[in-house]
Amino acid sequence: MLIVTDGAVDIPEDLMTSNLVAQVPGEIWGTDGPLEADREAFWAGLRRGEYPSTSPPTVSALMSAYQHPDLVIALHVSGQLSATVHRAHEAAERVGSGVRVIDTGSLSVGAGLIVSEVHRVARDESAPSLVDLALSLPSRLHTFALVQDVDALRRSDRSGLLPSSHLARNHPMVLAIRGRVVPLAQPRQRSGALIELARHLRHRPGPNPRAWALGHGNAHDISSVVSELSKVMEGDPAFVTHLDPTVGVHLGPDSLVVGVLSDPISD
């Protein structure tokens, strides 16, 4: 069995080296062609207002990743936010049977939690159907984001998914990712946005969290954010990671993405 995902899905470091996981990156383009800058250079460029463009993984790259003798579970970023799922279905059709494409309805660490859970169960030989498990996880996932600078959204081709009234105010914005982007609040200051983020995490629907994770846009206050959200979630995050550039370019510096995967509802 092989789990395939894409660059817009942020996963913990141990999964990056697992022989059960393959990640197909998207592409980042500057004015002079593809960018291969290191992480610090990428975020420094965004802070200077240098926003590159992005493109999803190609069909051929996905086809190459799907070439596996056993079952392939392809867990990808929301189809309402990216063309990746559409390309994934095309790639799966070309490869033939044995590839199951699943839209996580999320991005970044939200979708990363789904990958992590499928990976965890895949190592258990007595595990139930992995496809059934993977299909059940998006409904148990809640993903929230804090965008510090809405200029990132204005520059982004994703900005058309949000009401223009929100983008007109240069205040931090708290969002929910439910397949699409849902605006929740837009306080004047980051402190207020963090309070709103914590409030939505505290009152999210569903049973107790099984796990939560945090992605950030090279946030200057990440240590205090982890500390405060750990109190709200009553436990440490499963993992904390920098946002992949294909996500970071749309959310901007100091942005946050929090994913929460709930336990199944008991009978």
In words, what does this structure look like?
With about 270 residues, this protein is α/β, with parallel strands linked by helices. It folds into 2 domains: about 1-140, Rossmann fold (3-Layer(aba) Sandwich); about 140-260, Hypothetical Protein Tm841, Chain: A,domain 3, CATH 3.30.1180.10. The protein is about 35% helix and about 25% strand. It contains 11 helices and 13 strands. It has helices spanning about 15, 40-45, 60-65, 85-95, 110-120, 130-135, 150-155, 165, 190-200, 220-235, 245-250; strands spanning about 1-5, 20-25, 25-30, 35, 55, 70-75, 100-105, 140-145, 175-180, 180-185, 210-215, 240, 255-260. Strands 10-9-8-13-11-12 form a 6-stranded mixed β-sheet, sandwiched between helices. It is globular and about 50 Å long. The mean pLDDT is about 90.
Q: How are the secondary structure elements laid out?
A:
Layout: E1 2-6, H1 13-16, E2 21-24, E3 27-30, E4 33-34, H2 39-47, E5 53-55, H3 59-66, E6 72-76, H4 84-95, E7 99-103, H5 108-122, H6 130-136, E8 141-147, H7 151-155, H8 164-167, E9 173-178, E10 180-185, H9 190-202, E11 209-216, H10 222-233, E12 239-242, H11 245-251, E13 256-262
Parallel strand pairs: 1-2, 1-6, 6-7, 11-12
Antiparallel strand pairs: 3-4, 3-5, 8-9, 8-13, 9-10, 11-13
Summarize the structure.
The chain is α/β, with parallel strands linked by helices and 267 residues long.
Query: What is the N-to-C succession of helices and strands?
Result: EHEEEHEHEHEHHEHHEEHEHEHE
Oligomer: single chain
Number of helices: 11
Distance between the termini: 30 Å
Assign the CATH topology of the largest domain.
Answer: Rossmann fold
* Widest β-sheet, arrangement of strands: 10-9-8-13-11-12
Name the structural class.
alpha/beta
Q: Mean pLDDT score, rounded?
A: 90
Overall radius of gyration:
18 Å
Q: What sort of overall outline do the alpha carbons produce when their principal axes are compared?
A: globular
The biggest sheet, with number of strands, parallel, antiparallel or mixed sense and barrel status, is: 6 strands, mixed
Name the beta content range: 15-25%
- Helical content (DSSP H or I, runs of 4+): 25-40%
Number of DSSP-assigned strands? 13
